[in-house]
Amino acid sequence: MLDEEHPSLPQNPSDDNVYTLGRIGEHNTVIVGLPAGLMGTSTAAWAASKMQATFSSIRFGLMVGIGGGVPSCKNDIRLGDVVVSQPSKGHGGVIQYDFGKTTPDKFERTGFLNSPPIVLLNAVANLRANYDLGGKILCHLTQLSRQPLFARENAGPDVLYRADYNHERPGTSDCSECKTDFIKRRQPRGNDFVIHYGTIASGNQVVRDATTRDRLSKDFGGVLCFEMEAAGLMNHFPCLVVRGICDYADSHKNKSWQPYAAVTAAAYAKEILLSIPAAEVETGSSAFEVMNQNLEFNKVLGKLPTAVDAPFNVRKREHETACLPGTRVALLDQIYDWVDAKTHPNIFWLSGLAGYGKSTVARTVAARCFGKGLSVSFFFTKGGGDVGHAGMFVTSIAVQLANNVPDLKPVICEAIAKHSNIANLSLREQWDRLVLAPLSRFGTDQSSPTFLLVVDALDECTGESDARTILQLFAELRGSNEARLRVFLTSRPEAHIRQVFHDIPETERYDFRLQDISESVVEDDIRFFLRQEFSGIARHLHCSTDWPSAQDIIRLARNASGLFIWAATACRFVRTGRQFATDRLATLLNQSPTEGNTPEKQLDYIYSTVLKQSVPAEDFSEAEKEELRSMLRSLIGSIVTLFSPLSIQSLSNLMETRGDKVSQTLHDLHAIFDIPKEPNSALRLHHPSFRDFLLDKKRSGNAKFCVDEKQAHQSLSAHCMRLMSKSLKQDLLGIGRPGAPAIEIENDRLERCLPAEVQYACLYWIQHAQKGGSQLRDDDQVHRFLKEHLLHWLEALGWMQKVSEGFHAIVSLESMISVSWT
Fold first, then answer.
1. Which helix (H) or strand (E) holds 203?
2. Is the domain of 506 the same as that of 383?
């Protein structure tokens, strides 16, 4: 590695690391290895802290070593390849997959690992643009691999087994008895190695199981490799992680590729250092100063309330797909031309009726720009809790900008520090101080990047006045050249949204209606989607490869009437039919759109079909079937009127129903609900159009499943008060210290004493009462609850750090008081 070796220097008395000192290019370099036999994030952090104690002027580090690759269709990772950490998908390039908290709804990864310093990110960007990079690294590699131990030819064959095939002889590294039938066939590759840039997963456990590897990769939006040290460094030492791939993190894992993989990583690391001018390093801050500053920035950002489910690529949206390659081609080209152009209007409004695929297009656009580090997003969801309203819209955008764009972080933190109550200011004040002002300071010349804000489903934002305010803020961008920001917005063509857009001159906005795309083009795209989906369904159900027929696909696409949600629901309906899949397909094929049938009626038909099929036609009397329908109405009525999604377990506790009964009732409704296998993950609608169908008597009444929205809210309000009356009490958490700060309370204690359903009840019982049209009277249920539990309720909100929501709710109770004069 070293161009020149230097003599050892005195070390801090507490530092027992063993160093090799020298020069690489123009840079004085310290090399330290971790103690033999010791692995894990804490070991790396400990070694780095000792190194900083001895070498206080160190500017940054490179974490160089080996890792287990995650091969996928998207990333053709081979043994000997190099993986480099790169900020992406809302994190700094490294995630700690085994650090977080288990909530009643899901496992949540907590904390945020810092991005590499700018000097290293710039060096990586320059190397990626250098077409001669491979030749230079190959030159370093030749020097480093002169010893036979590190030679490529001594590493052995590169064999990847199927994820569902385990090693034949556990405890041994010899694959001689593993069956060759299970080897994945891959195209030969000319290059000895390829460099990949993206997410590295770090943790304290060795991953040696392909199923676990792929599940974790999917959970975190696509991981390139697993390793065991980087997470301990990122928040304590400014560094870039470089890993040579030595195995596939599966049961066939062995050490034969470790030496060669280590030198490929070292060769890349050396080229990184050679590409950085010494003057750029000398003028930078020391590692100690950088980390202290980052800690302060993260503390400041942590003061802003954010909607964690707002970005397009959060875990809860993993089942939501982007446009398939080859579909929506003309539309996406038009959008990308608008994004990339320098002079086009700042706003692009994509409108369309329910089910036309607006959100899918939004996810595709967000992903394309996010890959360049230039986009942030907010996906509204009615009934989605914090993403169902605009209260955290601006703060969420600001935090995403700060985390995605390192140069913006200090500017945004400065604005937060100046205005400690900024989260309570108006949307306009927040927008001006947290978004526009920082962006205007980022750069105004033509070479400065333009950022894209993707806002999906603005029509699902609770409160038309807030939606109008957001649109007005976007409209004002057209007169500002200071903030290089563009907004891609999707929504249904609701009146309050159309009104604001029509006030913007046509020359200063783009708007596109999905229903204006040629019917033949849309039908072609839907046919392509159906072919792809049914190909997977046929494999899953072990059907013949020619099922369904080409003619059936054409008929299904015609029945979809231009609605992608119809096609997606149809595929889920057939897939979950198991042995009755062909019967379900026949049912859908028999639905032929008649003249005058609207797309909405086609959608109503498939929703009605799914609901009817969920109630068995045989073995039950009419009275029993009506009872089943009533139970189903009550359950799905509650789900579609919740203000924030709950898990099956939490919902059953709220409704005082057994969890297995809820699961059985929803068993055949996977076509319209995202029903997770884990009992503590939240239930969600696949598409909001089902809520529209269910709450509209004209559309769902004939199906005997219409939900009375007012009645559903009244029922939920009563359930909330019953649950709170049973659960709330003085000193709920058993602290024994009045006035103890909420931030001192461990999450485990809070979740144990205030489970998700109780927290939901505390937050939303008054909103349900309002939506249910309740009138407050002396000695009614609300009055009795407040007399006995008002202080207990406020205490619970205090522990949840939601007291302000409680005060707003109390004020709103005034409008519900029934006054009678005698």
1. none
2. yes
CA dist., res. 567 & res. 570, Å (int): 5
Q: What is the pTM of this model?
A: 0.72
Are 280 and 390 found together in one domain? no
734 to each of 30, 744, 750, 763, how far by Cα in Å? 51, 13, 10, 21
Domain housing 667: 622-707
CATH number at residue 687: 1.10.10
Among 91-95, 131-135, 338-342, the range with the most confident prediction by mean pLDDT is 338-342
Does residue 597 form part of some domain?
yes
Query: Can you read off the two tokens belonging to residue 38?
Result: 């010791």
| Host H or E run for residue 95 | strand 94-96
Neighbouring CB atoms inside 10 A of 488's CB total 24
The answer to whether 380 and 510 have CB atoms below 8 angstroms apart is no
State the average pLDDT over residues 393-407: 88
pLDDT of residue 644: 93
Residue 447 contacts by C-beta under 8 Å, 6 or more apart in sequence?
none
The helix/strand/coil state of 446 is coil
Whether residue 246 has pLDDT greater than 80: yes
List, for residues 48-69, the tens digit of each pLDDT value: 889 988 998 889 999 999 999 9
- Cα–Cα distance, 250 to 206 (Å, whole number): 10
| Pairwise CA distance, residues 492 & 366, whole Å | 19
* CA 676, 682, 686, 690 torsion-angle sign: positive
List the structure tokens of 403: 């985390």
Do 408 and 474 lie in a common domain?
Answer: yes
Region of residue 426 (phi > 0: left; psi between -120 and 50: alpha; otherwise: beta): beta
Closest CA to 271 of 114, 84, 55: 84
Phi then psi for residue 376, to 5 deg, are -130, 160
% helix, strand, coil for the chain, step of 5: 50, 10, 40
Residues in CB range of 405: below 8 A, 6 or more apart? 373, 442, 451
Contacts of 753 (CB under 8 A, 6+ apart): 732, 733, 734, 799
DSSP strand E in 341-494: where? Answer: 347-351, 375-379, 451-456, 485-491
Answer whether 248's CB lies under 8 Å from 71's CB. Answer: yes
Give me the DSSP letters along 760-799.
HHHHHHHHHHHHTT--B-TTSHHHHHHHHHHHHHHHHHHH
Residues 357 and 490 in one domain: yes
Claim to verify: residue 361 and residue 374 sit in the same structural domain = yes
Query: Among candidates 381, 396, 393, 475, which has minimal Cα distance to 426?
Result: 393
Q: For the chain, how many structural domains are there in total? A: 5
